[in-house]
Each structure stands twice: as structure tokens, then as C-alpha cells.
Amino acid sequence: MASAEIRRFNSRGFREYAARTVMGLPLLLSSHIQDPTPSLALNSVTLPGVASSYRPSHTSEELRIVDVRETPIELPTNEEINNPESSLTNEQIQNELAEILKKLDQNPKLPSVLKRGFEKRHFVEDLKIYYPIYRRVALAYEIPTMLLFSQHLIETGASRKINNSLYVGAMQRDPRPGYWPDEFANEAFYGKGLEDLAKVPGQRHPTDAREIAAGAKILRIKIDSKGSIYGALKAYGAAADYRFNVYNALSQTLE
Known about the structure:
This protein is mostly helical. It has 11 helices and no strands.
């Protein structure tokens, strides 16, 4: 399929296409840098280093998660996702959230498969609080919504465990000069007109919305420079394969 054709896909159509083929060839995540165990076929998902697996109930046998780690991906633009002239309404976001929670009900083992002590109730709590933030920020920076959720989970357990020793905030931003200082975070937040997200109730820390926006801007920069989501995750922090597998599992199961 030509690049121009891919750009005409909306985000869901693109994922369905990418889940079946990259450059016309079906692929599986069959190797891992640290662990050669086959991983992440959607009809029986196994993450590296995790013994348990699960079978998502709403997927077909032929749908598989694709290894796109080093494959350049032309992400959908705002125009392809939604009309940028009119933001998503609260009702639309809540309807999307209801569908995601329904899929989580169909796949209750997903949180435990992702390790780190996650439970279904944690995911429900996290998504009810933060999904409106993820969705708006992801739209602003033209990145997948579940990429923000996965990074937020991995970095701080969705702001449950924030360590402000060297890195700060929900997405563990490096605030040192020459990296991603507070001025960068403010620009990422206020520069995109996202400041109303600070009022979303239930956030575990008062800077969560701003830090999620900063994390999204960092990811956007790194996707553009590295040419792929995997490349961006590798540049963002350690354990790139785990980060990518968590993102893929969340994206293919909940979106």
C-alpha cells in the first residue's frame, strides 16, 4: 500500500491494517534483545520475561500485533483523526472511555500480563481519571493515545509513584538545562492551549496534565527524529522493548 493510501486511514483503520502487514509482509514479534521468547501475538499474548499469557476475547485468530520497531510509520494527522477546528467534546471522550472499559472487562488479565503489580482496578481508576487528558494531548501532538497511557504507567505507575530526585513529574522528565526544563514543559502545555486540563478532577499530582503534555511533546520530537515509535521509546528511556510491548498490547487490545 502506498504512503498516500496509508495516510487516508483513520487511526483505527491504520492500526487494523498495520496489525496485518508492514510493507505487505505479515510479521510477528518473534525475537527480543534480552529474551528470545516469542512475544505478542495478539491471539495469545506473551510479554518477554512473563510466563502468563491471555487470549483477548474480542479479537480474531488472524489479527496479530506487528513488529514495527524499526519501520518508519507515517502517523495519522489531526485532520485524519478528527476535525481540528472542533475539539472532542466531553461526551465523545466519555463514550470512547466507556468502550475502552468494556474491552478491559473482556480482557481482565491484561494488567497482570504487563507485570509491575498492575491490576484491573488500577487500570479502571487510571483511565477514568486520565483518559480525557491522554486523548486531548495525544490529539494535539498527533501521537497514539495508548502511547501516553503506557508511558505514564511505566514511568510512575500513572502518578502513583513519582520520584523527584533527578527526573520529575508524571512522565519523569529530565529538567536539567539542555534537556527538558520547566520552560519546555510550560510551552508544551500552554502553547497548545491545554491548560484547562489542569482542572480535570482526581489527578494524583497538580502538575500531572502539564507533565503528560511535556512527555507527549518529547515523544513527538523523538518520533520525528528517529522515524518510528520504537526508536522514540528507545531514546526516551531504558527497556525499549518492554515499553514497546506494553504500548502494543494496550493499543491492540483497548483501542
